[in-house]
Amino acid sequence: MPSRPFLTLLLLGPLLTAFPRGAGALELVYERSFDLPGESQLSGIEGMTLDSSSGDLILSSGVPRLERITTDGDYVGPILLDSDAVVAPDGLQARSGGRILSGNMALVSEFEGATGEAAAGGISLELAPGFTDIEGITFDPVTETIWVVANTEARVASYSTTGAFLSEFSTSGIGVEPHGVVFDPVTGNLLIVEDESNRLHVVTRSGAELDDFDLSALASLSNVEAVTLDPETRTVYAGGNTTVAVFTLVPEPATGLLVVVGLAALARARPASRSRR
Length: 277
Known about the structure:
By secondary structure, this protein is mostly beta strands. Helices cover 13% and strands 42% of the residues. Helix 1 (4-16) packs antiparallel against helix 3 (253-269).
């Protein structure tokens, strides 16, 4: 049985996404940027997630060595994946307890963020039907749903944690070639970035576009392939080439009150404070 905060979010979801574009639209406010630290061995940023257990960002470039940095850009250290048991990620998504979902091609696995070893009893599956090009992965903790995006197929799909196909939608109708994705547990929407137009799109779980932002104009960011979100502070981190840009996702008045209620529900669902921001 889902917890009361999660049920609150489920009830709020339709309200938060019911406003048409332009009536309750969002504003993405640029805050700052930083380059990968000199100690990093990444050639670029293809995947990124915020580890809520540490407050760090974890970044990937499709190889078994990941990098952990602070949200201010300071180097923390590498994560060396057990390549025999964990897929080298294009997409990353932190879950509770320090576990990280990794996605590449049609494979999804789960590893311990502290060690890089396969998580005992964790998720390990091959997606069907015919999903062959995972570029981004995210997780809906309310419904225990995995969301993946495929750039070459202009496709977004959802699966259960056992690999059962649940739903999909094409992004070609809204001109999106998806690359990175993150689920917003406060609103129930998906944030998707694409690397050719360098735009961030806010879409519903059925594929309706609510808003979009030009990250190259806002932050001179290019080749944007990764995005992650701190749902409590509404901080968005987007990665392009070897640069991370930081934004704040601000609701306008029509949705502001509902977001406040959603944040309160999220806070009750995750009471533990982070050890480092």
